[in-house]
Write a structure and sequence with these properties.
single chain, 94 residues, mainly alpha, 2 strands, 41% helix, Transposase DDE domain-containing protein
């Protein structure tokens, strides 16, 4: 597994082997994923998780990832002619 980070995110003891610092403008897939997870937080209230049992937290995380999969299959992540991927989940935020 590779962990993508900003260039300013480093440890004093050195970076792990699986950490890849990204220059600005590269690995834009990371930004799409961060945006989608931020949007899903509005629907699933993922930041307000207060589970005391690890299995419940894992179930909540699995639910959020399953929601992402459903939304991708529903509408797709098709870029327009400029390479921009329009993202909207307004219709699900009731």
């Amino acid at each position: 597994m590779v962990i993508l980070t900003d260039t300013a995110f480093h440890s004093k003891e050195g970076d792990p082997a699986n950490m890849k610092p990204c220059q600005r403008g590269t690995w834009n897939v990371r930004m799409v994923l961060e945006t989608v997870l931020s949007m899903l937080t509005v629907i699933s209230h993922f930041k307000k998780v207060g589970h005391r049992v690890w299995d419940y937290f894992r179930a909540r995380l699995a639910f959020t990832m399953a929601l992402f999969d459903v939304l991708v299959q529903w509408d797709g992540l098709e870029p327009d002619e400029n390479g921009f991927i329009p993202l909207s989940i307004v219709e699900f935020s009731l």
